[in-house]
Design a protein that fits this description.
The chain is an alpha/beta fold and 419 residues long. Among the domains are: 113 residues, Methylthiotransferase, N-terminal domain (Rossmann fold, 3-Layer(aba) Sandwich); 111 residues, Transcription Regulator spoIIAA (2-Layer Sandwich), CATH 3.30.750.210; 56 residues, OB fold (Dihydrolipoamide Acetyltransferase, E2P) (Beta Barrel), CATH 2.40.50. Helix content is 35%, strand content 22%. It contains 13 helices and 20 strands. The strands form six sheets. Strands 2-1-3-4-5 form a five-stranded parallel beta sheet, sandwiched between helices. It has a five-stranded mixed beta barrel with strand order 16-17-18-20-19. α8 packs parallel to α9 and α12 runs parallel beside α13. The structure holds 5'-deoxyadenosine and iron/sulfur cluster. The site of iron/sulfur cluster (SF4) has 10 residues, from α6. The site of iron/sulfur cluster has 10 residues, from α6.
């Protein structure tokens, strides 16, 4: 049987896209290869959000091209960088057999069938088993934040019909999945014939056999009271909001075209905490946006300290050709950006440590996701928010929700015992 090996860079949407492609290939008789060297088909799913992400993908693609067996191993490059550079990518990095851009995900089945190097239909089952999986509910983004390439490479927003989302979830549950994360660049602007995201969440949460439901990403501007109330009222929807703030200065937020002020953001956080006091709120933060002053950077630090994110993804601004911010002239030096990033990361790491530390002694429901590879083989899981958990007990099994107590925190992981 032919085999495929995936290397996926970037966000969860890419992970979901890779998984969808794998499902189609599995229908065609493909199995997943343990290593790249063994695979008949290599697929690199790329990210364009920062220069560094593109560099890493290019390095990997070159490596695959160099090391490939000459026995007809194929190399496909898909995703956002594939969309951004298109056929140019084949000149930049020799050895690529096929480039499929992120916008082509809609007709992906057809694209695959046109190019499939191997045999005909065969009905081998996919041996992929996970208790947690992603389901995209919308594609693309219309926000045009001035720094961001996503609207250009993923195209404009398109919501997927609620029936289709439900069908996807039901299929995954039938395959053993117990936890679903609904995905969209901005789930709060989901809209399909009168069904908004809160309605969709309620519909999804009531599907039989779904133990946990998550969603990401919420845009602060569109994060509504209705959504927060819906999350609060549905017991199987996890108490986690990923609410990227990006910056703490109103001037910078406005240049970023984010559509909210730092005061608006703080109010949203307050609203969430009014309905769900122990909700985990996480964020994306960008430092070194063109013309960001030291004082404005300090405002980001203050906001971070005041809000207390459980965790955050933090980035130095990376200019992306074709975006509005790329033509703003007052770039900061790499050194400045790096310094700011380091300072921010240090502060947030301390906050994360505190947040995890505050959990010691508390009871938490842990969703068990799997077992560690390491020799001590603890069970891994997640609490009802976004916190990582390790559990050392015999009765565990992936897909169970267990009542536990936190005995220790190791900075970014809770060690729990069963109660
Ligand atoms: N440079 C650095 N970070 C970026 N992000 C998006 N575009 C850029 C860029 N040009 C970050 C934002 C976004 C996350 C997915 O990536 O913080 O929320
Ligand atoms: Fe990019 Fe803004 Fe859309 Fe997020 S909301 S994908 S940061 S343009």
């Amino acid at each position: 049987m032919p085999s495929v090996f995936f290397q996926t860079f970037g966000c969860q949407m890419n992970v979901a896209d890779s998984s969808r492609i794998f499902d189609i290939l599995a229908e065609k008789g493909f199995v997943s290869a343990e290593t790249a060297a063994q695979a008949d088909l290599l697929i690199v799913n790329t990210c364009s959000v920062r220069e560094h992400a593109e560099q890493r993908a290019k390095t990997r693609i070159s490596q695959f091209a160099r090391e490939r067996r000459n026995s007809g191993q194929k190399l496909w490059v898909i995703g956002c960088m594939a969309q951004r550079l298109g056929e140019r990518l084949r000149d930049e990095v020799p050895g690529i057999d096929l480039v499929i851009g992120a916008k082509e995900m809609e007709d992906i089945r057809q694209r695959i069938e046109e190019h499939l190097p191997y045999g005909s239909e065969c009905t081998a089952a996919a041996e992929k088993s996970s208790v947690t999986d992603f389901v995209p509910v919308m594609r693309g983004c219309d926000n045009y934040c001035s720094y961001c390439i996503v609207p250009y490479v993923r195209g404009s927003e398109m919501s997927i019909a609620p029936e289709k989302v439900e069908e996807q979830i039901e299929q995954k549950i039938a395959g053993g999945v117990k936890e679903i994360t609904l995905l969209g660049q901005n789930v709060n602007s989901y809209s399909y014939e009168g069904c908004d995201f809160s309605d969709l969440l309620s519909r999804a949460a009531s599907i039989d056999g779904l133990k946990r439901l998550r969603f990401t990403t919420s845009h602060p501007r569109d994060c509504s009271e209705k959504l927060v109330r819906t999350v609060a009222s549905l017991p199987n929807v996890c108490n986690h909001f990923h609410l990227p703030v990006q910056a703490g200065s109103d001037r910078v937020l406005s240049l970023m075209n984010r559509g909210y002020s730092s005061g608006d953001y703080r109010s949203k956080v307050e609203m969430i905490r009014t309905y769900i006091p122990d909700a985990d709120i996480t964020s994306d933060i960008l430092v070194g946006f063109p013309s960001e002053t030291e004082e404005e950077f300090r405002q980001t630090l203050s906001l971070v300290s005041d809000v207390g994110f459980t965790t955050a993804f933090m980035f130095a601004y990376s200019p992306r050709e074709g975006t509005a911010a790329a033509s703003m002239k007052e770039y900061l030096s790499d050194k400045q950006k790096k310094q700011r990033l380091t300072e921010l990361v240090n502060i947030q790491t301390e906050i994360t440590r505190e947040k995890y530390g505050q959990m010691i002694g508390k009871q938490v429901d842990v969703f068990v996701t799997g077992r560690q590879d390491r020799h001590d083989k603890m069970w891994m899981g997640q609490d009802n928010g976004c916190k990582r958990v390790l559990l050392g007990c015999n009765g565990a099994e992936a897909g169970l929700i267990l009542k536990t107590r936190v005995i220790k925190s190791s900075g970014m992981t809770l060690i729990v015992e069963r109660v």
